[in-house]
């Protein structure tokens, strides 16, 4: 834990990174080859999403300057506004920043098509710029899928991953003599058994608000063995599997969820679960810390952290993530790359994980027993995170108009909560989205 | 007298060269600053928006002239058509309710109440608060399980409501927030109108034996009508462009149940980055606002005191 509080010197940074690399490769890498001071005096701009990830980077920014001599001017902006600002600035051709923090599940395709990110593949192979412990094989599969473009170029470094898991209230389950569900069918049965509207207890909660609700449905869809868009770019959103997944969504959220769930985003779901009146909550792993905070939660010590139950065809955890990359317009690409490398280094990843602010894509951090010891969350949480990583699948299609996809499909899903027919709603939404997707691919 | 007044301008024009006035062309430098400001902040953005609306234009993509295709797309865009309906329902309620409650409040505060000044001060406080802060507080109050509103309903035996979390009740619930915030504005305007009414009509009415309702209906209401019309115009403009409260509380949801034209326009332009189509929506919205403004200006003319007094 000393790592999380003490200031970082060049020596401690190299030592911790060397230890990680040694643990992975069995041989000491030529760390001395990385010339951290080579770009001393350079000034770089960093555009971050307002989040625990951005907070950690800004908090320890001075350590990076001490290590490299590179001056950093960073800015955190709320997610939606950061995306707009980034697009406008990058589109102008002369952005005010060299490093950009991106949400892969929303921006990946857009950034690739517009060529806004620099190819850092060559930097990663350059021992003068890249620590030997930083290899592609150290990233989880989902991370690599997100970071590389279809040509196999590395356009960013995978930063933080968000797997979807099920938070469950062990007390409510015990009162009904239930155990954690292993399949979708069990989950429905448990949710309905736990629901008692007179008592104000509900079996299940998840996002009902349009746009935000789509990952809930895709989480189910992946369990039916289908991705929302197949490898050939065809929409799979109105097929039999999609309809079954929508029926499951409709049943869980209309029969076992609290009143008003159609307007719930993650924060309302979290509030409901924190009160101890909800049996299961399906959402990202990053929302766990408040559940174990006695000042905010009535379920401290009572929360089970479950891996997504198995669907009829597959068991999959919908995965989302952040990356950090160098803009192609940057005049300080090497210095900016050093910042990115520092941001995903072992010590920074450990800080992120231990504070519960995010889960690094790097396996060497996640699997390090020393790092795991410092994690404040219960061991079952980190076990669920690690297990989810093994069944991870991308939670949203990698298409440019992903926001429209989420809005259009999200409206259909919300309509289901007012009694809409899953087949009709999905057909209508798919027909509506199809031309938008085609137009974006042609653009 | 009339003849002299009518002749004055021509006399001035004719005598101008003799008094050493500058030629007409020398006045233009004084107009330039105003023309430059109006041109750059009003006319250019407006013309550019119209120009963009004739293009298929995604941020980060290529621009292509597409004629009226964006406008044609609007006609079959269910989400856009629904947003027009939501905008008008929202605007209607957000104008009428503050108008009714604001007028009632003005009548109460116009009477000789104890602590009238303090109570007036307290009453106008919602108007001074930041909309987004208000929205966050109301979001918590609306929460079906944890919100105070359902708790208050439970005290009088009314079952819990879903408020902004239900497509049916979302717009009335949002209007509740608007009404709470903007009733004081209407109250202040009407209070100004009440203060301007002379006492003689009331004295005459009292001699004629008019009761309270008749005095309100035949004296107060017609006399404050011009002030009410000002309140209607201000509230209509404000409700039509309302964005912050709706976005912060529902983001247009559940589904698209509270998505007004403004919110849809924002999504298209800044979330989907389809600036061409977004511009077409902005142009149509602008046309609707202009049409509504003309109707209101016409009504404003009709409520002038001169009309009430028989066109004097």
UniProtKB/TrEMBL annotation, chain A:
This is Sugar ABC transporter substrate-binding protein. Its main location: periplasm. It comes from the Bacteria. It is found in: Periplasm. Keywords: Periplasm, Signal, Transport. Pfam families: SBP_bac_1. SUPFAM superfamilies: Periplasmic binding protein-like II. The keyword Signal applies. Belongs to the bacterial solute-binding protein 1 family.
UniProtKB/TrEMBL annotation, chain B:
SUPFAM superfamilies: MetI-like (SSF161098). Residues 1-23 are annotated as: Disordered. Residues 1-16 have a biased composition (Polar residues). It is a multi-pass membrane protein. Keywords: Membrane, Transmembrane, Transmembrane helix, Transport. Pfam families: BPD_transp_1. The keyword Transport applies. Residues 84-296 form the ABC transmembrane type-1 domain. It is found in: Cell membrane. InterPro entries: MetI-like, MetI-like_sf, Sugar_ABC_transporter. The chain crosses the membrane at residues 27-48, 88-109, 121-141, 179-197, 218-237, 275-297. Belongs to the binding-protein-dependent transport system permease family. This is Sugar ABC transporter permease. The lineage of its organism: Bacteria, Pseudomonadati, Pseudomonadota, Alphaproteobacteria, Hyphomicrobiales.
């Amino acid at each position: 834990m000393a790592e999380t509080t003490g200031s970082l010197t060049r020596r401690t940074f190299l030592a911790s990174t060397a230890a990680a690399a040694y643990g992975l490769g069995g041989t000491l890498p030529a760390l001395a080859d990385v010339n951290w001071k080579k770009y001393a005096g350079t000034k770089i701009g960093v555009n971050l999403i307002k989040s625990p990830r951005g907070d950690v980077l800004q908090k320890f920014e001075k350590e990076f300057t001490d290590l490299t001599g590179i001056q950093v001017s960073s800015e955190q902006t709320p997610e939606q506004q950061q995306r707009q600002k980034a697009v406008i600035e990058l589109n102008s051709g002369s952005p005010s920043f060299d490093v950009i923090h991106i949400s892969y599940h929303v921006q990946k395709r857009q950034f690739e098509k517009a060529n806004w990110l620099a190819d850092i593949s060559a930097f990663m192979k350059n021992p003068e710029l890249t620590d030997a412990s930083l290899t592609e094989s150290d990233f989880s599969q989902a991370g690599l899928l997100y970071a590389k473009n279809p040509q196999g170029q590395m356009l960013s470094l995978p930063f933080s991953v968000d797997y979807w898991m099920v938070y469950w209230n062990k007390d409510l389950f015990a009162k009904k003599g239930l155990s954690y569900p292993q399949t979708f069918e069990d989950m429905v049965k448990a949710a309905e058994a736990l629901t008692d509207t007179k008592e104000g207890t509900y079996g299940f909660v998840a996002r009902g608000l349009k746009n935000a609700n789509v990952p809930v449905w895709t989480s189910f869809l992946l369990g039916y063995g289908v991705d929302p868009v197949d490898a050939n770019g065809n929409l799979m959103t109105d097929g039999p599997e999609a309809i079954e997944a929508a029926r499951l969504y409709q049943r869980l959220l209309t029969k076992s969820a609290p009143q008003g769930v159609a307007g719930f985003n993650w924060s309302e779901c979290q509030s409901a679960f924190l009160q101890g009146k909800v049996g299961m909550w399906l959402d990202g792993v990053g929302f766990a810390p408040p559940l174990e905070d006695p000042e905010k939660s009535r379920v401290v010590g009572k929360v089970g952290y479950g891996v997504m139950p198995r669907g009829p065809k597959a068991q999959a955890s919908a995965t989302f993530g952040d990356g950090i990359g160098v803009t192609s317009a940057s005049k300080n690409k090497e210095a900016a790359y050093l910042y990115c490398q520092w941001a995903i280094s072992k010590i920074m990843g450990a800080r992120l994980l231990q504070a519960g602010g995010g889960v690094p894509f790097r396996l060497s951090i996640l699997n390090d027993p020393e790092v795991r010891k410092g994690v404040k969350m219960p061991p079952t949480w980190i076990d669920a995170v690690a297990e989810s990583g093994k069944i991870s699948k991308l939670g949203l299609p990698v298409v440019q108009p992903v926001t429209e996809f989420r809005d259009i499909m999200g409206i259909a899903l919300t309509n289901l909560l007012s009694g809409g027919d899953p087949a009709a709603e999905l057909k209508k939404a798919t027909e509506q989205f199809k031309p938008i997707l085609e137009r974006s691919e042609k653009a | 007298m009339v003849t002299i007044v009518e002749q004055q301008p021509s006399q001035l024009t004719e005598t101008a060269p003799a008094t050493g006035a500058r030629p007409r062309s020398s006045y233009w430098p004084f107009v330039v600053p105003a023309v430059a400001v109006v041109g750059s902040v009003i006319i250019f953005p407006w013309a550019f928006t119209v120009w963009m609306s004739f293009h298929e234009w995604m941020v980060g993509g290529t621009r292509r002239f597409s004629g009226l295709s964006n406008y044609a797309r609007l006609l079959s865009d269910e989400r856009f058509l629904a947003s027009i309906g939501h905008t008008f329902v929202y605007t209607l309620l957000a104008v009428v309710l503050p108008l009714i409650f604001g007028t009632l409040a003005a009548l109460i505060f116009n009477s000789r109440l104890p602590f009238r000044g303090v109570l007036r001060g307290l009453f106008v406080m919602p108007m001074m608060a930041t909309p987004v802060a208000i929205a966050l507080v109301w979001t918590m109050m609306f929460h079906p399980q944890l919100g105070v509103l359902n708790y208050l309903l439970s005290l009088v035996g009314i079952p819990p409501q879903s408020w902004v979390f239900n497509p049916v009740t979302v717009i009335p619930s949002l209007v509740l927030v608007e009404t709470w915030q903007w009733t004081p504005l209407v109250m202040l305007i009407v209070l100004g109108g009440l203060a301007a009414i002379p006492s003689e009509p009331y004295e005459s009415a009292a001699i004629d034996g008019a009761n309270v309702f008749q005095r309100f209906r035949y004296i107060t209401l017609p006399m404050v009508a011009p002030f009410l019309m000002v309140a209607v115009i201000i509230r209509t403009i404000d409700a039509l462009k309302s964005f912050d409260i709706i976005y912060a509380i529902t983001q247009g949801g559940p589904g698209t149940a509270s998505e007004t034209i403004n919110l849809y326009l924002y999504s298209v332009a800044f979330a989907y980055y389809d600036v061409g189509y977004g511009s077409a929506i902005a142009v149509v919205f602008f046309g609707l606002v202009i049409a509504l403004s003309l109707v209101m200006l016409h009504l404003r003319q009709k409520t002038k005191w001169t009309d009430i007094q028989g066109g004097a």
